[in-house]
Amino acid sequence: MFFLAVLAWTNAVAQTTIPIPPTLEGMTFNLTPQQGTSEIFSGIQTNTIGYNGAMLGPTLILNKGETVTLNVHNQLGDTTTVHWHGLHLAPSNDGSPHNPILAGADWSPSFEVLDHASTYWYHPHLHGKTLNQVVKGAAGFIIVRDDEEAALNLPRTYGVDDVPLVFQWKTFSADKQIVEMDEVDNEVLVNGVLRGSTLTMPAQVVRLRLLNGSSHRFFDFGFANNLNFKQIGGDGGLLDAPVAMSKLMLAPGERAEILLDLTGKEGQTLILKQFGSQLPQGYPGGMMMNMGGGSNMMGPLDDTDFDLMTISVIAQTANPVTSIPAVLVANTPLSQIGATPRSLAMTAQPMMSMTNFFLNGLKFDMENINFSVEQGKTEIWTLTNQTMMAHPFHLHGNSFWVVSVGGNPPPANMRGRKDVVVVPPMNGSVKIVVRYDDFSDPDMPYMYHCHILSHEDDGMMGQFIVTAPATGTVESVPGRLMFYPNPAGRNVFFEINEDITKGAVCQVTDVLGQVVSEQSAPVLNGKGRIETEALPAGSYAVRILLEGKTYTGIFVKQ
Length: 558
Ligand code: C2O
Ligand code: CU
Ligand code: CU
Known about the structure:
The protein is mainly beta. Helix content is 4%, strand content 43%. Strands 14-13-12-16-21-18-19 form a seven-stranded mixed β-sheet, with no helix packed on it. The protein has a five-stranded mixed β-sheet with strand order 1-5-11-10-7.
């Protein structure tokens, strides 16, 4: 249906309807990467790659807790991989450069869906060929559903009030073929059709699942007339509560779910725009460094604002969602207590270079495992960027929590599960907290890399293995520790759901992962007290060591 619609467009760009990818549901999915041609420009055939069609691919609907099998039949005429970007799964199922599918061959990973309801995606990940295959059109959505999300009054009728939209910068040659480079991107496609096309949506609360599926450039989304919207989800799940926004930046690989209230707007049109002029310097799509000879880094649409798509508001559906929930889910970020630090530095050679990037001084080497992470152990990764441009850092196999950006707590819309985070240029730094609780594998690594695909293909990537947990660790008992009053004043009282009378050690950690206080406290029938007078306002993680067990919890100081 999607591809029929593509062939039917022969009239002017402004008339084009944005197609909605078809869905695949169930426990077994068949995906066939293949070549084809697509009429992106009226009357011209462009060579493209798609899954089960000429360009892009079907949306896979997965349900948390189900075991799914994904049968990939490679009809591309070239080696490929299919990476399930954002999913928490074993490295052997990940579709990384270590899981190649030769031309004509099949690959059938099978795994339990463990992720939180959110928007994920799939794309090729063959080392050195990722850019080539993705820019030609190989990419599709994955929507994970779960009970927690299902219990909320949110729009979720696919293609009606809940629409996935992939935005992709691309470089077209004069004869409208896709060029396998990404530094001078000259066009933007939305679900595979030219920018400026139209989507119809009913006059009620609607949900847009936005994916920056570009190889290089960032988006700074916003609506004409400064219309506000609410972000409800990030890469790997819903936020605690909707966040009111007027602009939303998405780097390559990042997703966001937003709600728009179109109630009473039947007959009106809304324009979603790119505000490239508002991207900070060094963010691709905005103004890059212009060091004399560097002007060839610029694409013709960089640093400009333009329309991405029009939303044309039609009549309400039968059972519309007409209000936006005040709260969504209760996210509990990973505790930073006892975390092991790790540093990853992004550098360029020479320092001003916009093309030759390294992670900790190295380029990716298929044969070299960069480090190992012990299963079950929390790590805090400090990502620093000593280059002139922003790099979207992506981690495989698991989502992470952003602890700080430039030393400050992350904005509200970044306080959910993430798998891509932008590290700002010119000594920008980001801290993330990471933990792999399962899938240790001594042989098969997980990847981490910059999601700018030319950087990744050129080796701005590394890999690590998750090792089996060391035995004899202290039992950690989360969720058994209560605090009152919370928010706390000069003291906070705690209560453990166990009748213990003994001395405990209490360790208090701030949002940056620093231990700010360590005190011994007598515990009487499971109750005790921590002095908090000296602590600045903020939220704190507490670890209480008592009788060989560790109890963890969080309180807020007023
Ligand atoms: Cu979206 Cu390693 O990739
Ligand atoms: Cu990925
Ligand atoms: Cu990069």
